[in-house]
Design brief:
Blueprint lengths: L1 E2 L11 E2 L10 E6 L1 E2 L2 E2 L7 E5 L16 H37 L1 E2 L2 E2 L4 H30 L6 H26 L10 H10 L7 H23 L1
Antiparallel strand pairs: 1-2, 3-6, 4-5, 7-8
Length: 228
């Protein structure tokens, strides 16, 4: 995705998306990037890439000049929903590990789940998962029936709510597993690292919160006008 600095077009029409084959002269892979020490380059992943005077045919332009922002926004809505769906799946796995561990381990003469604090964690984790799932389903339904633009507020809401909820569930599971929860004996540490990136990827929480507030104020203003 590239921006044309010499255009006087709207800021939403200054970006273009271009297909650049990896064997194009001037394209250089510098290094794979890690997240909290974890690499994902085995299946593509993320790399630092340098472009040095790279040129490709005009036919490599996607949709047309100045339509990059349009393409990105068209993908980001459904993409954010997909992130939340996979996050909820991770939360389910984390809660399963938490419950299994709490049924296996004993401290002070009783199973971990028999300690009230752990029982409360289990209950709160289930509540958080179901809340995130229902909000995600609502956003998915809206984007299916009303389109990306009409679902903007709900998409931003789940993009904030789902990772927060899932991180809490994973954190509880790590706590119940003790030292093992930080090791590779369980998938929890890697899950935490991945889910934490979602509070930045596809828009940080702070941007989504500002969007939610703006749209909420507009909705409230419409209702107030209608009442008048």
């Amino acid at each position: 995705m590239a921006r044309d600095k010499n255009t006087s077009a709207s800021r939403y029409k200054q970006h273009s998306m271009i297909i650049v084959p990896m064997d194009t002269p001037g394209v250089k892979l510098i290094r794979p990037l890690s997240v909290f020490g974890y690499f994902d380059y085995f299946h593509g992943g993320h790399f630092e890439v340098h472009f040095d005077n790279v040129q490709v045919p005009v036919s490599h332009l996607i949709l047309g000049e100045g339509r990059g922002f349009e393409i990105a926004q068209g993908r980001l809505g459904p993409g954010r929903i997909h992130h939340c769906m996979r996050s909820i799946g991770a939360a389910e796995m984390a809660l399963q590990i938490l419950c299994e561990r709490s049924a296996q381990r004993m401290t002070f003469g009783k199973k971990l789940y028999q300690h009230e604090v752990v029982a409360h964690w289990i209950a709160e984790c289930r509540i958080a998962i179901e809340q995130a799932r229902l909000l995600t389903l609502k956003a998915a339904s809206l984007i299916d029936t009303m389109g990306n633009r009409a679902a903007r507020k709900e998409i931003s809401m789940i993009k904030v709510a789902a990772p927060r909820a899932v991180l809490k569930v994973i954190d509880c599971a790590i706590q119940v597993c003790g030292g093992a929860g930080f090791s590779e004996d369980f998938p929890l540490a890697q899950m935490f690292a991945y889910i934490r990136t979602l509070r930045v990827a596809d828009g940080p929480d702070e941007v989504h919160l500002s969007t939610i507030a703006k749209l909420e104020l507009l909705d409230q203003a419409k209702q107030l006008t209608a009442h008048l």
